[in-house]
Amino acid sequence: MAVSSISTASSFFTSPNFSINLKSSVKSSSNSVKFGRAPISASYATAEKTETIRSFCSNTPSSLYDVLGVRAGADIREVKAAYRRLARVLHPDVGSSDSSADEFMKVHSAYATLVDPVKRADYDRTLVQRRAGGSSPVRFSGGYKSRRWETDQCW
Amino acid sequence: MSQEQVYTVASDSDTTGDERSSAPFPEIAIGIDIGTSQCSLAVWNGSQVELIRNTRNQKLMKSYVTFRDESPVGGVSDQLSHEYEMLSGSSVFNMKRLIGRIDTDPIVSQASKTLPFLIQTLGIGVKPFIAALVNNMWRSTTPEEVLAIYLVELKALAEVGVKRPVRNVVLTVPAAFSRFQLTRISRACAMAGLHVVRLMPEPAAVALLYAQQQQLSVHDSGSEKVALIFNMGAGYSDVAIIVTAGGVSQMKGLAGSTVGGEDLLQNTMHYLLPNMENLFPNKIKSMGVLRVAAQDAIHKLSSQSKVQIDIDLGNGIKICKIIDLEEFEEANKEVFEKCASLVTRCLQDSKVNVEHIDDVILVGGCTNIPKVKNMVMGICKKNKIYPGINPLEAAVRGAALEGALAAGVNDPLGSLDLLTIQVNAHSIGIRANRDSFVPIIARNTTMPARREVVFTTAHDHQTEALIVVYEGDEEVVEKNYLLGYFKVVGIPLAPRGKPEINVCMDIDASNLLRVMVGVLMPGEQNPVVPPLEVRMPTADDGNGLTADVLNRSFGSTLDLVTLHNKMSR
Question: Taking every annotated instance into account, which residue ranges of this chain make up the domain J (chain A) (predicted)?
C-alpha cells in the first residue's frame, strides 16, 4: 500500500509523453540497421494496413478493447485473432520502416490483459467504475489524474 | 556496396561497420547455421529455400580452421585426408562453445583440458589464450578470428552459389548465448565483411519453418497449433514453445543451455580413459585418437546396443573395451538430466500444458540419440515426432526464410506471409538491494519490450549511483553475465529512500538493448539532470575481473535499492 502512493512521475520513461521523445531519438541515434523492407503484399498493405493504422492512431483509445478493435464481449478467440491481425501490420519486423515498436507494444499489452481471464476480469471491473462516472471508492484522490488499472487494484 | 568484395579479414576494431547498410534494393540475406561441429548455408531462391553445397557436394561442412604456413584454411574448402589431421594441433574448432567466454568459465577450463590445441587459462576472469600448432610453434588466434576465417570461406561459397556478391546474412545462434556473446558473433561477421541482418535463436528459425508448413497445409487460419521445439547440437541445447496460427507464430517460452554433444563426447572419453587429462598438452595425437574413437562409439550407439573399442594411444596405452548403451547413458546421466530440466522449465515458463502440445519437433544431431529422443517425447507425453522437418537442416532453412522476409520479398503463393513474435531468453536487470539481481525485463517477455523499475538511494546524501547491468536468471548477481555499468551523478542531497531513480530498459525489434536512467525528486515532473541512455553491452571481455574491480573500488557506497515495482505492461 505504502509504495503505491508514489506520484505518477514514477513511470517516467514508460509514460506516453516520454515515449514520443524516445521514438524520435531511436531513429536518429540507433545505428542498428533498419533493414529496408518493401511493404508487405500489396493488397495487405494498402487495404488492411491503412485502415488499421487509422483506427489505431485516430486518438488515444479509451479502452484496451478499442486498442485491439474488438467489442467488449469478445471471446478469447476473437481477441487472439485481432491481436494476430494487428501484429501482422504493426510488428516492427513486418512494417515499413516507419512503424515503431511502441504501437506493437501497446497492442501486445492490451492482448496480454484481455487474453488472461483473471487480468481481464480485473480490468473489466475498473472499466465499469470509470464508465460509471469515476466515483470509485478509491482513497488516493488528490493529484492523481491518470490513474491506471494496475494501481487501482490496491483497495 | 558491391565494390568491396576483397576477401580479407578486417581489423578487430570497435566499429562493426554497420553504418551504411540500407541499400535501395535490399538483397536477400543468406541463412547461415554456424554450428559447433558443422555449418550450412541456405538461400531463398525465389520460390523455396535451397541449401548451398560446397565443391565436394556437401551440404553440411565441418566447422574448423587449420593453420598452416601460408594461410589458414577452413572446413568449407579444405579436404582432410583423415579426421586425425583435424586433431593434430594445427586445427582449431569448437569456437562456438568458446566465443565470448572468460577463463574462469567451466566450459573454457573443461575445453582447455580436452581439446587438441592450446587453450591457456589463467583463471582470473579474462579472455583465454588460444593457439594452433604451426611448424611446432604455438601461434595465437581468437575465437572471433577463427570464425571470421571460416565465414570468409562461407561467403565465397555463397557468392558462387547465388552468382552475386553477398553481404547480408541471417545467422542462427543458441538461445543460451549472452548478449556479449552475440556481439562477438557480429564482430566475427564484420571481420569477414558480412553484415548481420538478424541473429536468430535456433528454435526461432525452426519455428518459422514450422509456421510456413502449417500455413500451407492448414486452411483454417483461426486454428492454433502448439509446438515444442527441442534442439540439441554439439555445443548447445535449446527449447521453445510456440503457438502458430495463420502464419503468425508466437513464442511462449524460450530456454537454452550450454550442454550438447561435446559434453557427451568428453564424458565418453573420460569413461574410456579416466586419467585422460594427463595426455595433454604433450600427447595431442593420443587425444585425437581417443576423440575420434569416442565420437564413433556415440554415433554407433544411436543404432546399436553395444560397440567395440580397440585403439592404441601410443606409449603403451591401449584401450580395448566394449561399451554398451547402458554404460553410455550412465556416464552421461547429468547431461540428459540437464536437457530434461531445460524442457520442463520452458514448459513451466510458458504456462503451456503438455496435453495442449500438438507437435514435438526435434532438431540437431544429438536428437538422434535414443535417450534424448525418449526423454523429450516422455515429458511431452507424445509418441510421434513431427515428421516434416529435417533435423540437420531446419535451422539453416529457417534462417534463409528470415533472410527473404527481412528483405521484403513477396511470394505470390503466400509462403512468405509469415511473422514470428519472439521473446527474450534471459532476464535483464541491475544489481540492487545489496547483492541481488533485480530483473527489469524478465525472461520470456515478448519483444520489442520496454520496462521500468524505480529505485532509490541506499545512503543518506548519496549523490551518485552505480548502475551495473546483468543478464541471466540467477538470484546472486555475480552468477549472471555482466553487460555493462555506468554512474548516475547529480542526485540531489536528500535522505536515503527519497530520490526516485527510474531505470528503464528497452529492447527494440532488432534486439538492441538500451538502458535509460533518470533521476526525479518526489512530486516533480522533470528529471533533475538530463537522463542517460546507454546501449548495452558496454563491458569488455573481462567480465569477472570487472565485477571484482567495481566491488573493490566502490563497495556499497553507490548502491541502489528497489523503491517500488511499477512494471508498465
Answer: 63-127
Cα–Cα distances (Å) from A26 to B163, B418, B450, B488, B527, in that order, read 36, 26, 13, 21, 20
**Residue in B79, B94, B353 with CA at minimum distance from that of residue B226:** B353
- Give the dihedral of Cα atoms A143, A144, A146, A149; nearest 10 deg: 180
- CATH class belonging to A42-133+144-155: mainly alpha
Residue pLDDT tens, chain B, 569 long: 444 444 555 444 444 444 344 444 568 999 999 999 999 999 999 889 999 999 888 999 999 999 987 788 888 887 776 777 778 889 999 999 999 999 889 999 989 888 889 999 988 888 899 999 998 899 999 999 999 999 999 999 999 999 999 999 999 999 999 999 999 999 999 999 999 999 999 999 999 999 999 988 866 666 899 999 999 999 999 999 999 998 899 999 999 999 999 999 999 999 998 887 776 556 777 888 889 899 999 999 999 999 999 998 877 788 999 999 999 999 999 999 999 999 999 999 999 999 999 999 999 999 999 999 999 999 999 999 999 999 999 999 999 999 999 888 888 777 888 889 999 999 999 999 988 999 999 999 999 999 999 999 999 999 999 999 999 999 888 889 999 999 999 999 999 999 999 999 999 888 899 999 999 999 888 899 999 999 999 876 656 677 888 888 888 888 888 886 444 43
Chain A hits for B22, CB-CB cut-off 8 Å, are: 33-36
**Distance to chain B for A59, nearest Cα, Å:** 20
Q: Where are the alpha helices (DSSP H) in B138-201?
A: 143-162, 179-191
Q: Which DSSP symbol is given to B112?
A: H
Q: Is B225 on the interface with A (CB under 8 A)?
A: no
A19–B452 C-beta distance less than 8 A: no
Among A6, A35, A108, A120, the strongest candidate for a mutation testing the B interface, having the largest count of B CBs within 10 A, is A35
Judged by a CB distance cut-off of 8 A, whether residue A104 touches chain B is yes
Q: Which CATH architecture has domain B30-198?
A: 2-Layer Sandwich (3.30)
Residue A1 in contact with partner chain B when CB distance is under 8 A: no
Residue B442, classed as helix, strand or coil, is coil
B17 touches chain A (CB under 8 A): no
Domain B428-564 grouped into CATH 2.60.34.10: yes
